[in-house]
Amino acid sequence: MTAASAASKSQSAERAENRFWLREQLNPYFFIAMKDEPEALGLLTRELGTLRHNRRLILADRDKALILAIVNQPGTLYDTLRRIHEREISYAMIAHSDDPIPGLDQNLEIQRFEFDRRSNEEILAGKDVGAPIGIRRTVAAALRKYYPDFDMADFDRLLRIFWLNNENYVRISPPRRVAQVLRLYQEGNRRGGLYLDVEEMEESGAGHESRVFFAVGNPPQQDFLLQVMEVFNRLELGVNRAYCLTISNGVHPYFLGTFYVRRRDGGVLARGSEAFSRLKAELSNTQLLATQSLAYRELVTTGLMSGEDATLTNAFTAFCHSNLAHNQPDRFGPDDVRDAFLAHPEIALQLARLFRARFDPAVDDRTAAHETILAETQKEVLTYNTGHRHLDEVRRTIFRCCLAFITHTLKTNFFVREKQALAFRLDPAYLAELGTDFTADLPPVMPFRITFFYSRYGFGYHIGFSDIARGGWRTVICRTADDLITNANTLFRENFVLAHTQHLKNKDIYEGGSKLVVALDASDLKAKERQLETWRLYKLQYGITGAFLDIFTTENGVAKHPAVVDYYREDEPIELGPDENMHDNMIETIATMSKRRGYMLGIGIMSSKKVGINHKEYGVTSTGVVKFAEITMKELGIDICKDPFTLKLTGGPNGDVAGNAMRIMLERCPKVKIALILDGTAAVCDPAGADHGELGRILLKQDLDAFAPSMLHTGGFMIFRTGSRREGVRELFRRVEKTGKGLVEEWISLDEFSKEYGELVFTVPADLFIPAGGRPETIDKDNWERFFLADGTPTARAIVEGANSFITPAARIELQKKGIIIMRDASANKCGVISSSYEIIANLLLSEKEFLEHKERYVDDVLEILEKRAGDEARLILRRRREQPGLLCTEISDSLSTEINANYARLFKFFQGRPGLSLQPIFRRAVLAHLPKIIADEPRFRRRLAQLPPKYLSAILAAEIGSSMVYKGDREAEFEDLIRLHLTRNFPAT
């Protein structure tokens, strides 16, 4: 035999030995899952022995696939995942041999990754595509046999999604495997996008191996699989095999993982075991704890803290920072607060122990445990001293704030396992404990409730000023680190002011004011990753909605979820509304979730849905703004429906308030000249007035940058924020001016653009200014004087605030002292929330079918109410101004709101204590007067008043009577009536 033939025979024998060893050591399903990669299997069989000299063997490395054979050592999977973390994994398979590789002490690890994610658009476009009939039949049979609880009505849709995402996986996998992943996906959907379960393997030789199922809707995009595997490792669970799919459902990604694990201590990972409870807590916590956070890197991966406690520490940090920094940002910046907890993990853990003693439903005798640990924690915080006097004072303040947070929280969903955000409902009395050093910049009133929300991607507050409360949900997207710090510093104050303004605004309806404001952290995303930003936005809003429902869905007044310890124990009717960055599909989702979870308001939790009054479609907010403008300008001698006048406004043609204000004015005011329009995309300045026809073309369809510069009049110009270009390191912005010779285009620097854009709102003259968009506090105490020309003439005679808090209170006072009439936001733009209130009434009194059948009539009735409410207040403000010239319109507006809200509070308490009064004839007339005419006129709807919850009837009565006492009242005559009644009762005729 020649040397060559001997070598060939030796290689053949080695391959046979390798093939036999692989068949013995790897689960049979490995070879099924790899049958589409015969070359990789052949290479593994041939080159297995090289792993005695090399740490890894590349079996495939293509654009869309990576397959590695590795000598299994601690950290090998982490190393690979770290190297490929920028690539979007669509499929991952991890497999291990049972015994060491021949000639080595370590086992074999196979890592297979595919990078072939399908886009949402591809899934949506494939609605007519389906798996072959043979596959469909065998998978359906497997589902019926192994998973009889699977809802077969959804089978074809779900199978189509998998087929479109990964046809190869469906083709090569056994029917039971496909059935298993279909069920996993369905269970994830049933549980709101987060599902975790375990089953012990029954196959012989499994050796206490358990199969863990984990499904996550819209999972974190970076390092998620790495984080999941870190959890298994940290909890001493060896992952022998793993199969992970990430698919698109047409809206966002979905992670579906099946892990075959063994406890390293030899025990059984069974449902109901302590080990599985810890695993469930930590895997669920991956939705809340970012791998980029310092708490994860410094406290969790080092073993100092569990993932749950690290998340709680991050929540402590966000709460303390946002409550302390709005008044003292230099002392309590995000780094200062975070470092206080990171530098002293023992205090963070002590605070976490206190929190658990108060809210863990599994703790026996919570009161005693809490009191004991509270005394320990208070002593530790009070005696905190490292010898650094200034730093110690700052950190003691932070820890005291955290203590106040824990002791004033009344309920939380922290111990709800299937959650994607945290919610903490607080007693607002904690603000008094913080002291005036931290509340002096807030309105001097105490809210009714404060709820803090925390998520992996952001945090925020819901602040309400009455029991039944409503107000919009605003999400502020922070695209840079500076955005995030600035918004986080001021978020609590901005939320508080907006909620209080909303409370003043809500004086005409039965709901008090509230606001939900959340900051979304998108600072780590690149400009090209806007789809990831949208997914992150949905994840944040979906998670917060779930957390909201965890604590506010009640039964007999007590939180319904058994994992929520409820110290408040009252029903809380909180109505939300869409605001900044709330998309239509999320509006519908929130309403559906509320109804499915059994929240007391059902779909009435969120306004402007299909079964509602879309604000933008009907221009409900702008209806009130324009009515205020009409009455205010008449006070100045201008009939806007007949006379010429000039207008400037902020907010674009595609915005709800600005767009509809322009629409209404173009319909009613043929002689209006719109001298300035300014939105986030562009500014149009045209002294002769923006062309009505061109505005009409883009109104409520496109942003201002779609306005054609060719339609400008001579002397008019546009500057564009969008469509910038770069020359070297300089960013340039387009400016187009209409001259006598035609259009002249130039490109200006960022500084030039910012200066001109920022000056326009102050310098362009007009009769009327309507701020209907833009950031709060644009005009403030430091720049209000720029609103006047050199000769002291104001650049607008009247301001009607269509946007909230565009002008600060201090600036309002100074502008009014100079003769400008200002109709503040709480009065001028109140009609949007009034309209939303009538949506809730429709939800309470009409079926969806009835509402849609009578929608146009119902909406017409509501618009009539809006015109009346706006007109009543505008006329009363101006009447009181004439009666007392020294009063400012904004002061009168505040006093009206205060009067009405005081009436409401007293009347609500009165009717709550006498629930039988509401349906007596005289009171029933007041209820009907508050409602749209269709309810009062149609007997079948009118009879349903008795179905309204007693709390709502009391609130409607209090609102209608409380407001009419002010709008329709004659204070002198009423005082005389009061005296006569007193005399009649106490000095009867003899």
Relevant terms:
single chain; 990 residues; alpha+beta; ten-stranded mixed beta sheet; 37 helices; 18% strand; NAD(P)-bd_dom_sf; oxidoreductase; Amino acid dehydrogenase; Glu/Leu/Phe/Val/Trp_DH_C
SSE layout and pairings?
Elements: H1 3-25, H2 28-33, H3 38-47, E1 56-62, E2 65-71, H4 76-83, E3 91-100, E4 107-114, H5 120-125, H6 133-146, H7 155-165, H8 167-172, H9 175-190, E5 194-200, E6 210-217, H10 224-234, E7 237-248, E8 253-263, H11 274-285, H12 294-300, H13 307-324, H14 334-343, H15 345-359, H16 366-382, H17 389-408, E9 409-412, E10 422-426, H18 430-434, E11 449-455, E12 458-464, E13 469-478, H19 481-505, E14 512-521, H20 530-552, E15 554-555, E16 558-559, E17 574-578, H21 584-597, H22 615-618, H23 620-635, E18 645-650, H24 656-668, E19 672-678, E20 682-685, H25 692-698, E21 717-720, E22 725-727, E23 730-739, E24 742-749, H26 750-763, E25 768-771, E26 798-800, H27 809-817, E27 821-823, H28 825-828, H29 831-845, H30 848-853, H31 855-883, H32 889-913, H33 921-930, H34 933-937, H35 939-942, H36 950-967, H37 971-986
Parallel strand pairs: 13-14, 13-17, 18-19, 18-25, 25-26, 26-27
Antiparallel strand pairs: 1-2, 2-4, 3-4, 3-7, 5-6, 6-8, 7-8, 9-10, 10-11, 11-12, 12-14, 15-16, 19-20, 20-21, 21-23, 22-23, 23-24
Helix pairs in contact: 4-10, 6-9, 12-13, 13-14, 13-17, 13-19, 15-16, 15-17, 16-17, 20-21, 23-24, 23-29, 23-31, 29-31, 31-32, 32-36, 33-36
Domain Glutamate/phenylalanine/leucine/valine/L-tryptophan dehydrogenase C-terminal: 612-886
GO molecular function: glutamate dehydrogenase (NAD+) activity
Protein name: Amino acid dehydrogenase
